[in-house]
Input
Amino acid sequence: MKRGRRPKWMLKIARERIDILFKLAEEFFEKHPERADRYVEMARNIATKYNIRMPGIWKRRFCKNCNKFLKPGSNCQIRLRDSCVAIKCLNCGNVINIPYIKERKDKRRKTIESYIIKKRIDE
Ligand SMILES: [Zn+2]
Output
């Protein structure tokens, strides 16, 4: 399946930018929450523009509904439900559900896959 026509290096830079923006958001959240929200917005714009999936670690750190940066214990509530992490944005009440068992399985599968690929190259 073809996905976009952006060269790989461009996607790499875009991913790095998303990472930097979220780190900045984290840093500024306490003193300048409005700036943190702006960084989230910028990161989301980049992700949309380059058709990049939000990295797992940051996926749960912002509200898809109101674009606010979320900090556990500050402006969001985290609940564990069955095999899901439910993150509630205290600003707009939106709940983000993240299935964590699936994520773990995906991670494990990826590790196995990369191991198989490596083995093939070695042979
Ligand atoms: Zn929200």
About this structure: The chain is about 55% helix and 15% strand. The domain at 8-122 is CATH 1.20.5.420 (Single alpha-helices involved in coiled-coils or other helix-helix interfaces). The mean pLDDT is 89.
